Structures are given as structure tokens and as C-alpha cells.
């Protein structure tokens, strides 16, 4: 009896210790799961917003190569960028209170029906066209003879439900449609004339420089606003012409490698760097010059977005001057005030950097020519 009683007490005593241990383990497990869920919700759930913030101010000279170009550059010409981040709960809340960050709905940035991959491809394409315009503007200013080569048609976007979506990707370059060589987008349209939905066409295209071929069935394209009559037949892609600017003399040929930078806003600064390498005198005169602005082949500088963020990026890199596109008022009354916004942000951060209003490439060159050597 005594042994039996001791055994009973011992068993009861052991159970009393096991129960709280199991309970504590369960609590730890639940806490860990809750913690993982909270971290996931805070950091990994993407919200339908982009967050724009100051990016970088980068020296352009290493990006531009000309065989016969001048290396005499005592100062620095810099392009400026805006950093764009997908919003999660944490950086969204930070963006709400941060004075130099900007939150925008993705719908205000992406075109209708455009995916984020297609947006990135569009930014890459407009960077390439901006570089081509910058080369032309610099060649014209330096009086360098050149010509234009048409090098195919890039796919910027595919339309849902059509055959192009199943085969082609943004960034593919169309080379042939049937037996017809595709040099410009009009060549593709011409090859489809007289065809109807349900017909097929052979498409030759290049993806990452590898040539491929596919047979696509034509479908009815969505009608454009105001378009009358029967819907046109097509493969369902948004095409964009690819051009290469070629100097008549090979030793004056410009090549640009800008890495992952996208968008058209570095056009002005590229044109100035190219020009600086084409002429014997150094236009920088020892100054650190940052800036932004699109450029046309005739040297006209156009407005861009996010200039307030670029001012901060340039100030961080101790730029002496910042070239800002002049304010523009359009016929419908709409305004884009790049210069005004740049001056306002420069005053907010109390920078010593001087903001210079630029309307053309020639404006920038005249300003630089008037500067005394540093």
C-alpha cells in the first residue's frame, strides 16, 4: 500500500509538470506564427502604390565611349535619377510622414492594361530613344556628319487574349512578318493588310539576340477611339521603332552603356557629355554639373518628372550647378513647372548648388562658356 501510494503521488507529480510545459510550447508556437504573419503583412504584402524618393547623381563620362573622343574633362557632368520602390506597409507609412518621399497609385503611373514588366520595358525603350536623340543633338552641335539606321521593331506591350501574348514578350525585336523584312512599325502593318481574324502569319523575332520564329493566328484588335468599320486583324502587340545613330566616320561613333537606368530624362546631360568628348575644349571647366531633361534631336529640352528628388541627389554629390528644364505652359493651360519646383526644393534643403533654367542644349553650352575656369 505504501509503495502504491508513493507511485500514485509520483505519477500525479510528473503529470503536473508535463502540462505547463506543453502549454508553454503551444504559446511559443502561436507567438511565432503570429510574429511571422505580422512580418509578412508588414514587409512582403505589396500595396498598389509606388514610392518615389531621391536616387543617385552619377558621372556620365564612364558611360560614353567615342574612339576619337577627348579625355580632357577636369569637372564632372552627372545625370540624376529617382528611386522607385514598391510599397509595403512599412515604407508606405514612412512615406506618409517623410518630407522628401512621394506616394503615387500605380494606376497613375502605368498605362491602361500595362503590367509592371511592360512599364520597365517601356522605360528601357525611352532611354534608348533618348540616347539616340542626345547623340543626334550633339552631332549637330559639333557638326559631325551622321545617318540613321532602322534596326527592327521592339515589342513594348502585348494585348490580352491575342496570339502575340502567348508567344512574344516585351523587349522582343520583330525582324520579319511573313517574307517581309520589318524595319519600322509600318512594315508590320503593311504585311497585315488584307488579312482577317483567323488568318496566320509567320513572325521572325529576336529575344536576347537569339533569332526565333513562330506562326501566329491573327485576332480582331480592340477598336481605337473614333475608329469606324470592321475591327482590324493583328497579332496584338504595341510596337516601337528601333533606331541607331551612326557617324559617317567610325572613329566618331558614340556608344552608351547606362546600365539599368531607364526613362528619357538623362537626354540633356548625355548630349552635353557626348559634345564634350567630340570637341577639343573642356566645357566643364572643373565644375561639378548635374541636371535633367529630355532632349529632341534639334536640341530642345523638355520637362520631366520627379525633379524635386533629383535636386537632393545632386546636392548629396556636391554639384555646383543643376540644369533644370524651363517651366512649360501648354495650349490647353496645363503647366509643368520643373524649374520652379527645383528652386523650391533647393531652398528647402538650403543647398549652395545653383539652379539654372535650360530650354535648349545651346542654352546650357552658352551658360558653361560664360563660366570662369574653377
Q: Mind explaining what this structure looks like?
A:
This protein has 374 residues and is α+β, with helices and mostly antiparallel strands. The strands form six sheets. The protein has a six-stranded mixed sheet, sandwiched between helices. Strands 5, 6, 7, 8, 9 and 12 form a six-stranded antiparallel sheet that branches. A hairpin with a 2-residue loop joins strand 8 and strand 9. The N terminus is likely disordered.
Summarize the structure.
The chain is an alpha+beta fold and 374 residues long. The protein has nine helices and 20 strands.
Brief descriptors of the model:
6-stranded antiparallel sheet; single chain; 374 residues; disordered N terminus; alpha+beta; 6-stranded mixed sheet; 9 helices
Estimate percent helicity. 25-40%
Shape: globular
Structural class: alpha+beta
Radius of gyration: 29 Å
